[in-house]
Specification:
The protein is of the alpha/beta class and 271 residues long. It contains 13 helices and eight strands. It binds S-adenosylmethionine (SAM). S-adenosylmethionine binds next to helix 1, helix 4 and helix 6.
């Protein structure tokens, strides 16, 4: 199976539509992503949500008045996102279309914002990620904003210990392979999670090399995805607000960014 087939096979089994709503880590990722959007995105404009999955971010942005178009290569995501959009009032719908980050059927300079929250870690080869980044630059207006997610190189190491599964030779070998190569699997079986895990400076380097300026990176969940009592913290509005405040304070601190499971980088297309 090639990378595209592995990604499709994985998401034909995974419940992507529920991910950001049903687990404490999903809720934290969603709240922090929206917090970063609120501080980074222009007040209005056209947003392409490339790799938008079942449409959680597209729906949130459409509620805030953005003109949103979602693209995703996985048929299941296209039909789930279409259903999400159709269930909304006409003024809050978003366009949904099948599409791959390396080739989006829209004109040059047609977007104010391009989101890539997924493609850059599912495209495992450097050349594929570069193609997606060059395509994002083509789509953006001069001065337009790219927001791109990565998975931290150290996420599987931390996750395996967090979940208490690290105590086996097989998992130890997979952690060692993942830390060394960035790849999620040496020999992926159909349905496996197929992805590339970035060091923070590697992700910003790829975005800079693709011709973006003012490139910056933040940890999405920070350290908080490893907290055993995260659910209780999020259940208390005051505790949740305090945690979000602290995460905001340290989100760009270089010495802690790589401890986050997800990284959110941004860059501006030169004017
Ligand atoms: C973990 S999901 C994230 C969905 C959503 N963006 C979010 O942040 O919740 C990763 C998404 O990337 C999409 N994806 C994978 N490879 C892609 C590619 N080459 N082009 C565009 N999207 C891709 C997947 O289909 C999936 O919807």
């Amino acid at each position: 199976m090639d990378g595209d087939e592995l990604v499709r096979a994985h998401y034909s089994q995974a419940e992507e539509g529920k991910r950001l709503h049903e687990t404490p880590n999903g809720v934290l990722e969603r709240l922090r992503t929206w917090d970063l959007f609120e501080r980074s995105l222009p007040a209005h404009g056209v947003v392409y949500d490339v790799g938008g999955g079942a449409g959680a971010h597209s729906a949130w942005l459409a509620d805030r008045g953005y003109l949103v178009e979602l693209f995703d290569p996985v048929p299941r995501h296209v039909s789930e996102a279409t259903a999400v959009s159709q269930a909304r009032s006409p003024g809050r719908r978003f366009v949904v279309e099948q599409g791959d980050a390396r080739s989006i059927p829209r004109g040059d300079g047609s977007a104010d914002v391009v989101l890539m929250l997924g493609p850059l870690y599912h495209l495992v080869e450097t050349s594929e990620r570069r193609q997606a980044l060059i395509e994002a630059r083509r789509l953006l207006k001069p001065g337009g904003l790219l927001v791109a997610a990565g998975i931290s190189r150290f996420a599987w190491l931390m996750d395996a210990y967090r979940k208490g599964v690290a105590d086996s030779a097989e998992i130890q070998a997979s952690i060692t392979y993942n830390l060394r190569t960035g790849r999620s699997n040496a020999d992926p079986a159909p349905g496996a999670f197929w992805a590339y895990f970035h060091r923070p400076q590697e992700l910003t380097g790829e975005i800079t090399a693709a011709g973006f300026e003012n490139v910056a990176i933040a940890g999405v969940e920070g350290f908080a995805w490893m907290l055993p009592d995260l659910n209780a913290i999020l259940d208390s509005p005051a505790s949740a607000e305090a945690l979000l405040d602290q995460l905001r304070t340290v989100e760009s601190e270089p010495s802690i960014v790589g401890a986050s499971a997800h990284l959110l980088a941004q860059g501006v297309k030169p004017v």
